[in-house]
Amino acid sequence: MLDAIMAQCRNTSLIMGVIALVGLLLQKKSATDVISGTMKTVIGFMVFNIGSNAMSACVTTFTDLFNIAFGIEGVTTQVEVATGLALDTYGTEVALVMVLGFVVNLIVAKFTPFKAIFLTGQHFLYFACVIALIFIANDMPLVATVLLGGILLGFFGAALPTLCQPFMNKIVGADNLAMGHFNCIGYAFSGYVGLLFSKMGVGKKETDDSSNLHLPKFFELFRDFIFSVALFMVVLFYIAVVACVVNGNMDVVLEYAGNDIWFIYPILQGLQFAAGMSVLIYGVRQFIAEITAAFVAISEKYIPNSKPAVDCPAIFPFAPTAVLVGFIGSFLGGLAAMALMVAFHSSTIMIPAAGICFFSGGTCGVFGNAYGGWKGALVGSFIVGMALTVLPLILYPAFSALGIAGASFPNVDYNIIGAIMNWILGIFH
């Protein structure tokens, strides 16, 4: 009986439900809203798990085919898959770090100059995973993992958006919005690349602004995120499958394809991955919504000078062409980084993912364009695209030792701050 109770205490969907319940009660919602919101949160997390499992299955298959074909360890920079793997085993630790992080974020915003209230709940979840895993990898006890991890997460949620604020003010035209996406170091870097170009006299002309570029109509398709993911994964699966066939591993391909025709199989797997992504995103939005709403209500009431830190697509309408330029630059940077890993015989090869190139790369494009036009957007996103692909190599050995293998946490903030944390904890380990 005790074992069953302990098992339920580690059930992340129930923990999320309890968190939502407390948040709804703090907002003094009606009994109907409390029951509905709590159930939606639990169901949302269950939906998240369904999408995560579907994506994980596709990634595992791709990784096996890729590794057999090329004789190396290929890892996708897909944060959603890595998060799903982490929550399967360490869901309790991650959930508690995330909730404490929300609370600390409000406290930091209330009493320090860092006024950002981080409202992008899924990214709070991803960073909570990274921080919790680093503490766990260094054998820190649960209490220390939750307390120290939550404090760090809350502090960075309020402080990191400050790096982006000068560029956010330029992009938006007002000082009322912050960047709530944990790639702030990368975005600020891209912004400074554009600023450097401007000081050098590059990108100053009106014709240099990305809005004056006329990209081929084909690139308009990539505005649809799910389409981008599907196409990208289909291409990756074809590369792995064709390489297997060429290298004499047709039997492996036929085994994985099963009843499907082997040359149609990559299309089906790519679309299956995109379908899993759609389900996962829906689940994340549902279970995060109720939790985030509680902290929004508290911040509006008790922290009047705070700034909402919102997800990166909020700035896409200010420079839509720069988003596409940034996507292209980031993807090219990721491919360049992958080529360097192959050239230097890295035992692990990080593979750029469409999602990270579109969202983080596209946002880098907007930041680089703010002062440096399309040239700043392209160069800034290219360099950050390389970082998004290379930097996960630092923490991947520690995470894979915990069972988080085949996928990684790519964003710059995760890896720079995570690497510093891992180094400091390693001194005492």
Class from secondary-structure proportions: mainly alpha
Which strand-content bin applies to the residues? under 5%
Order of helices and strands: HHHEHEHHEHHHHEHEHHH
* Mean pLDDT score: 86
Strand order of the largest sheet: 2-4-3
Number of helices: 14
Q: Which of globular, elongated, flat, extended, rod-shaped describes the shape?
A: globular
Helical coverage, percent range: over 70%
Rg result: 22 Å
Largest sheet: 3 strands, parallel
* Beginning-to-end CA distance, first to last residue: 35 Å
Detail the poorly predicted runs. Answer: 1-9
Number of strands: 5
Task: Characterise this structure.
There is one protein chain. The protein is mainly alpha-helical. 74% of the residues lie in helices and 4% in strands. The chain is built from 14 helices and five strands. It has a three-stranded parallel beta sheet. The radius of gyration is 22 Å and the shape is globular. The N terminus is likely disordered.
Summarize the structure.
By secondary structure, this protein is mostly helical. It is 74% helix and 4% strand.
